Amino acid sequence: MPGSFRIGKIAGIDIDINVSWIIILVLLTVSLATGWFPQLYPGWSSATYWVVGLISALLLFVSVLLHELAHSLVARRRGLPVKSSTLFIFGGVSNIEQEPKSPGVEFQMAVVGPLTSLLIGAVCFLLQLPLRGTNSPLEGILFYLAVTNVLLGVFNLIPGFPLDGGRVLRSIVWRITGSLAKATRAASITGQTIAYLFILLGIWLFFAGNILDGIWLGFIGWFLLSAAQSANTQVMLQSALRGVTVGEVMNPTPPTVPANISLQKLIDEYFLPRGLRFALVIQGDRLAGLITLSDIRHVPREQWEYIPVGQAMIPVERLHVVSPQQSLNDVLPLMAGRDVNQLPVVQNGIPVGIVSRDAIMRYLEVRRSLGSGTPKGDGGKQPSEAA
Ligand SMILES: [Zn+2]
């Protein structure tokens, strides 16, 4: 997810924080220190309100983390690789690399998060019972955590994708219809509808004078909306590309250049006349590397005459290469993760083609215009001129 940074690793799972969390942390601390705690526990010093506000906000963060880890650990026990968890206020987003294989697995994975939150809420509620009426900061913190964790559990059970409740809904529709794509669409539409309701309610509260709550709800709605849309796109893409191999969409005659010519010659004789943006670099019949326009731009213009392609290219050791038999569903995340637009296709060390994002998008475009397994929305990026 863009705008996220890593804070650590638990049980082999990277923990990321989205910048939205920082904004929320500040908003939350302010509203706790100036609203919630002074109203419920009058008579503390102002410093106490701020410290308790911050501690409570951070402990809520830990609660969210536990909720998220519950998802990740169940996913992993069910054989789904989990890379990272990104935290956002009401539950995070677990970066689970594959979609669950069956509705049963999806159901378990989804429901364990809210259950964890409800459990934490119940424990905190029981712990604060003996402190009731003491007006102490500890009572305040425990009561706050009890309330928020129960809310967290309930909120996440709202049946809109990608909330846990949306996943529960999806697993149920999936079980009934037998179609993951249909189930995803249903859960995503519900999710977007709920997101718009949050935004509308936020705007209404804002203009009704309840500014902070309004911003809150609007923010949650906006997050839900973008998450629902991107989750939907991703699943549509995956289902459209299921069973398609690299060999089917690759360009089997990629532009190739020898490693020993100069960059100037590469530009004058290959890139400019043929309108290329990249080429495979060949030594003998083996792949030596990949050269792209941006690699050339990293070399000062006055050196183009002297620097050979072999020196400016990305050498094969640093390249990720794929085989013609690999599934596009494995290859596309690889491209996205490494932010590259093309990958060389190699069989037994010999280059047999190149697979590019453009080619994959073109494939989807053609599939769509033929009306088979129609991917919707973002699948239709206009193909630009490729080599
Ligand atoms: Zn969750």
Question: How would you explain this protein's 3D organization?
Answer:
By secondary structure, the chain is an alpha+beta fold. Helices cover 58% and strands 14% of the residues. It has 13 helices and ten strands. The protein has helices spanning 19-40, 46-77, 103-128, 137-156, 164-177, 180-207, 211-241, 246-249, 263-274, 293-297, 309-312, 328-338, 357-370; strands at 4-10, 13-18, 82-87, 93-96, 256-258, 278-283, 286-292, 314-315, 342-347, 350-356. The strands form three sheets. The chain has a four-stranded mixed β-sheet with strand order 1-2-3-4. Strand 1 and strand 2 form a beta hairpin. The two termini are 30 Å apart. The chain binds zinc ion. Residues 67, 71, 91, 113, 156, 164 line the site of zinc ion.
Task: Name a few traits of the molecule.
four-stranded mixed β-sheet; alpha+beta; 387 residues; 14% strand; elongated; disordered C terminus; binds zinc ion
Strand order across the biggest sheet?
Answer: 1-2-3-4
Mean pLDDT, all residues: 83
The number of helical runs is 13
**Can you tell me the overall shape?**
elongated
Identify the bound ligands: zinc ion
Helix content: 55-70%
**C-alpha termini separation:** 30 Å
Q: List the secondary-structure elements in sequence, H or E.
A: EEHHEEHHHHHHEHEEHHEHEEH
Strand content: 5-15%
From the alpha-carbon coordinates, what is the Rg to the nearest angstrom?
A: 26 Å
**Largest pleated sheet:** 4 strands, mixed
SS-derived structural category? alpha+beta
The beta-strand count equals 10
